[in-house]
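Troubleshooting: if your tokenizer reports a length mismatch, compare against these two reference records.
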Amino acid sequence: MPETRLIDLTRTVSRLGHGAMTGIDRVELAYLQQFLQGDADVFGLVRSAFGWLLLERTGCQNILKLAQGPSALPKADLLSRIAHRKDRPRAQAETAARQHAMARAGRPGLARLLRRLPARSEYFNIGHANLSANSLGALKTAGLQVTVMIHDTIPLDHPALARPDTVEPFRRKLAAVSAHADRIIHLSHATRATTERHLAALGRVPPGLVAKLGIDRPTPDPATVPEHLDLTSPFFVALGTIEPRKNHALLLDVWDQLCEPRPALFILGNRGWAGADLLHRLDSLPKDGPVKVISGLSDGAVAALLSQATALLAPSLAEGFGLPPAEAASLGTPVVATDLAVTREILGNYAVYLQPSEIYSWKETVVRLANAPPLQPRRATDWNAPTWDEHFKKVLNLAC
């Protein structure tokens, strides 16, 4: 294995100051933490509005501290204010990255910048940023090995579930990976099969390996749960960004058909790309009704709700891995999920699997769980969560 690791931190920097992290954000941070704990040389690469920034270990450590909070972002410098007039956190984040950079280069100067790295270096792209023919080609020109994690190919498999302006850009990203990657990290055998099918159509399938993501058992913090939420009666949780593939509309249909008294449904997540009809339904929910949309919760509050919920409901139409069901299972919370190959691969027999359009089956399951005796104590006895140690032993060829 190469002795020097270069991790692309463009996504992490772009997310600083923007609130709760997504699943992909968490994975990129897990890699940064792992690299900084080891003895290998560690560098970070960030694409800013004006070019490339190269960070050494200390700079990467500072970015990690900012990502983990509560460290304050610096005041935006002039360059960042010019580039990001309408996005103050992004301006501040790029200022922080620039302050910690050991070297900079304009957009055409990436290969030259990377020649500062020691020989036998490996580039890790975890967050899907900078997957372009120019960027990956420059990395290869500079002599780096290129490792890319492909989380899923949902924009190509289900274009109707993706924003229209993301489908072709994603195809171009995958074409660049096909041409330039030395190896690909897949998160499941199911996603590997779909990814390699697309890569084959693009001309080349780089060597790959399957390494399931590690599941860190969330730490509940009941003190941070909003006081107005009633947790004494049965309640269900749906967790994830509000977008078409998460299929929130099915849950709204189910709750419309439930008899009184209806259990509570807490939809936890920020608004992503969602259709006007769904957003109108969510905005029209009565404030004193059983269905509540809650955003901006801390990780501890989300974990507290998840740990006490009657069940997590995950009617997704497509998933690359599915962190919420896995985190729920790690807490011993029952999971009701769409019957997807990737979910079965990750959770096995732990979850109850239903079809994503069978409203009656979802309604029947919700009623049964709401009327069942509570599980005491909660424990995940039927599911062994994959660990980060197992993941990195596969990816980094660490000795067992």
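Reference record two:
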Amino acid sequence: MIDLHTHTNKSDGTDTPRELVNKAISLGVTVLGITDHDTTAGWEEAKQSVRGQIQLALGSEISCLTDDGISVHMLGLLFDGNHHDMQTMLEETRDGRLPRMRKMVEKMRAAGIDISMDDVEAARPAGATLGRPHLADALVNKGVIKSRDEAFQGMLNNDSVFYVSHAAPTPVEAVRMIRSAGGVAVIAHPFASLRGQILDASNFQELADAGLNGIEVDHRDHNLAERQMLRVIAKELDLAVTGASDYHGNGKLNSLGEYQSAPDQWEKLESRADQRRVITA
């Protein structure tokens, strides 16, 4: 069982890295990708938790914006965690999250919604990368909405009047940085239309030219037609096809291991890193 896209409480998940690794072991996961948003803060604890047959593919989910303002998430896996320019890019992306959150809260307060930055901070675990899920949790805690899923289908959707973008690399810049750091780049849920605007099929050639290695095809937010189209694109561009849960722990429907990557596709992906960085016991 290979799940290459999960989150811990170092970004917007609810499990600690140790809890996530233990849960994956209990479920029989053989390769686990830990990809917190714009951070590698959970790597060390995850490494210390490895035992048995599980292997870790450590990485990060990088928040990107196209030149025309479409939000894109790029999974960087198996890159050098000490790569200076990569860590600088992640830090700069994290720094843009605070002013963005303040603007979203201001918009909600102007609309009469009882929410504050203090409420958001109270919902964010210590040291976690600030993100919309923490605003969603704050809204749940205040009784404004019932769940994170409800928030992202409405108030926090990319097309919502409350949505605010933040400074971020373009997808091409992110791919190039991941490859420069020795890792592999997989675009996450690129046709997830419920999240807002999505890429067009023509965008993938530019990403492939920049060094893209794979497409996350099997994901809860893709319907059958979208998956079929992405498989065609991956085949045409010789990209690995991955599947993943995008697990966040409590508050989201995604279950660990609910979508998986085939072993041959994982082997294809891993072979394109500049060296073997999978973590084993």
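Descriptive notes for reference record two:
- The beta strands are 2-6, 31-34, 55-65, 71-77, 184-188, 214-218, 240-243.
- The chain has a mean pLDDT of 94.
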